[in-house]
What we know:
Blueprint: H1 55-68, E1 73-80, E2 86-92, E3 99-104, H2 111-126, E4 138-142, H3 147-152, H4 208-220, E5 224-232, E6 236-239, H5 251-269, E7 274-277, H6 278-281, H7 289-295, E8 301-306, H8 318-336
Parallel strand pairs: 3-4, 3-5, 5-8, 6-7
Antiparallel strand pairs: 1-2, 2-4, 6-8
Helix pairs in contact: 2-8, 5-8
Cofactor: Zn(2+)
Organism: Anopheles quadriannulatus (Mosquito)
Signal peptide: 1-18
Amino acid sequence: MLVIGVSLGFLTLATVNYRPNFAYNQSVPYTNLQSESFLTHSPDEFKPLDIFMSYNETIQWMAALEAKYPDKCKVEPIGRSYEGRDINAMVINKQPSKKVFVVANMHAREWAAMTSAIYIIHELILNSNNYPEASTFQWIVVPLPNPDGYMYTRLERLWRKNRAPQQDNATGVDLNRNFAYKWELNLNEEDDDPHKETYRGPSAFSELESRTISDYLNQNSNSIVLYVDLQTFGEYILIPWSYTKDSAPNTDFIMSVAHAGAKAIISQSYEYYVIGTLSDLAHPVSGSSMDYCYFVGVKACIVILLTNEGYEIAPSTIIPYGQIALAAVQAMAVKAGE
């Protein structure tokens, strides 16, 4: 498959110096923030669809939702980051056996992915009657699997990796190259350089954050019907494999799931998302979460690259991109769950 002029956001290797135009509160501690005091908050105190919430605000909002709607949702801590922050999943519709697992923002700078996960949580809890098909699934949504990196983007907006120290005084690993399926393949020279933004780490699953996602996949692989890794940017829906041009097993089924998502996006926004493998659209990448997900037996594993306008988006686009993400994921879940 030949594609001219493709620029996949998560493959960008340019280094950019960025000075934030807002203040960063360095007094916020790097601690477990699941204290009882947060349960006194009301969800109405937050504006999750109007601003880019901080890590602290996000987990407080999630806790407030659980406190107000305990019959609809539950916050589940699934791991910790290098700097000690909780990695929390929001579990919605606790009864259905079929699960949809959505992860966003493994690459720290991809704020539209994070806000789209927030939008999914918001809608499926506060406006659940608008999404009857979603009610047949249990949703597990992780908006901040890389909380340290995300908070660091308040200082260096285009930071991509986590914040774990590496050799040669470097910092961070590209979490989406750190999964233990075909990690050992040395497909891109820069992926072995700790100073590059696509550094894959010293070993597979060297990072707490990637192990957190892999543990959940392994523990629930028999019940997850759809895994979606929300990323930016480029307007693509990617299917396995990332590491090779060879076809993955059950490619026709995976393509049908991806086409359901693309069709839903067209209905929602009149935008066309290209479907394909990473190897076809750009170049192969080893150690991705999508490939690992498929390897451990999850029925459908997909990457959605949202937006065509880069990493820095306006708050006014939070809802439109969230609507695209939810429409696509719900349609793919229905297809995958057949």
